[in-house]
Amino acid sequence: MDKDILYKFGNIHDLLKTPEHIQKNAQSYFKDFGKKQGFSDEEYIAGCIYAAYRLDGKQPVLLDDISIVTRLPDSSIMRAYKKIIDKLKLTPKPLPAPRVFVPMLLDRIGVNDTELRQKTYDLFDRLAKCGLESNVSNPKHFAAGVIYTADKIGDSYQTVKQYEAANASGTTHGVIRKVYNYLNEKLELGLWRLPGGAVIS
User: Fold this and answer.
1) Residues 135-164: pLDDT tens digits?
2) Residue 127 sits in which domain range?
3) pLDDT at residue 22 greater than cutoff 60
4) pTM of the predicted structure, to 2 decimals
5) Which CATH number belongs to the domain containing residue 43 in this structure?
């Protein structure tokens, strides 16, 4: 593979902290795809990396994460990704479960609290029992809302602010409030309902 292409792959892998097996798969897809038409090398590289993450299905990396580090629009990466999986006949897995994003988000927020981590996973366990954990539109945003909500349960709370949860996951205060109100209603947590965040249907 061309040294310039390997260098570009390496830069993105470093920024995303990509596991070695995903790095190898992404570079293999780029090589196997062959002649590239209609997209830049950068778009195909990003598409291959996204494909490798989607076929793994276990890492807390989404399309927007790759878009941020590559400075490419989501739409161009998605078009390249679709070409790649179609030509190579790859079968992507569903997006990672929201709970997968908890360690990464807590690290971004700057909270190293065993109790908060456990309360967050307890909420996910309750959601799973009710069949409510899956089928969320963005698992990272949802996980940030669960962390924020878990922080408000019990005596030790107010550690995580709305803006911290929103910034860590790349979303808005409104989305965090929606998840909070959703959990509060569905799991009957008995917390105050927050204004400006309609309950998720």
Assistant:
1) 688 999 999 999 999 999 987 666 899 999
2) 98-186
3) yes
4) 0.86
5) 1.10.472.10
pLDDT of 196: 65
Is there a domain that residue 196 lies in? no
Q: What is the pLDDT of residue 159?
A: 84
Q: Is residue 198 part of a domain?
A: no
Q: Which residues contact 199 (CB under 8 A, 6 or more apart)?
A: 178, 181, 182, 185
Query: What is the model's pLDDT at position 50?
Result: 97
Are residue 115 and residue 60 in the same domain, yes or no?
A: no
Mean pLDDT of 171-184: 93
Say whether both 171 and 111 belong to one domain: yes
**Residue 71 in domain:** yes
- Final residue belonging to a domain, choices 63, 87, 111: 87
Q: Does residue 135 contact residue 173 with C-beta atoms inside 8 Å?
A: no
Count of domains for the chain: 2
Instruction: Please give the torsion angle defined by the CA atoms of residues 144, 147, 149 and 153, in that order, rounded to the nearest 10 degrees.
Output: 180
